[in-house]
Amino acid sequence: MSRPNTATTRTPIQLAAMAVGAVFVVVGIAGFIPGVTTDYDTLQFAGHESRAMLLGVFAVSILHNIVHLAFGILGLAMARTARGAYFFLVIGGVVYLVLWLYGLVIDRDSAANFVPVNTADNWLHLVLALGMIALGFALGRSVRAIGVPRTR
Q1: In sequence order, which residues have a C-beta less than 8 Å from that of residue 91 and are 6 or more positions away?
Q2: Alpha carbon distances (Å) from 105 to 51, 61, 122
Q3: Is the pTM of this model over 0.90?
Q4: Which of 89, 119, 133, 141 sits in a 20 to 30 Å window from 126, CA-based?
Q5: What is the pLDDT of residues 96-122, one digit of tens each?
Q6: Three-state DSSP string of 25-71
Q7: Is the link from the previous residue into 149 a cis peptide, with omega within 30 of 0?
Q8: Phi (first) and psi of residue 17, to 5 degrees
């Protein structure tokens, strides 16, 4: 039952977090679709042995797809509040920055590459990190100001 005089207004940061979360959900699902994911028959649960490639470019595994799904669902849930959206974008961006650094230093043919990541994944992680952090800071000014005493 809807309430007649109730408006659901989302802030720009909430909309951005919802969009980012939705994209991650779609990517997580796409990783399980043969054709969208090439060499689907080589999809492994985890590890660099998986030769499945989302869109023929990005290395994926079952674990990788589940992480995308979970991250997307988390983003959608956190986007219910402006503060949650801010933290999803900024902290999520920092996580992707760490993942980018991790991808730079690991031996991609070792057990350390358990996600798995390839060069395309790695640079996409950097773009995601910078984009999410930038969105969080650009759209989260009012969120960051909450609880901060004003000085004259």
Answers
A1: none
A2: 21, 20, 11
A3: no
A4: 141
A5: 999 999 988 888 777 777 777 788 989
A6: HHHHHHCCCECCEECHHHCCCCCCCCCCEECCCEECCHHHHHHHHHH
A7: no
A8: -65, -40
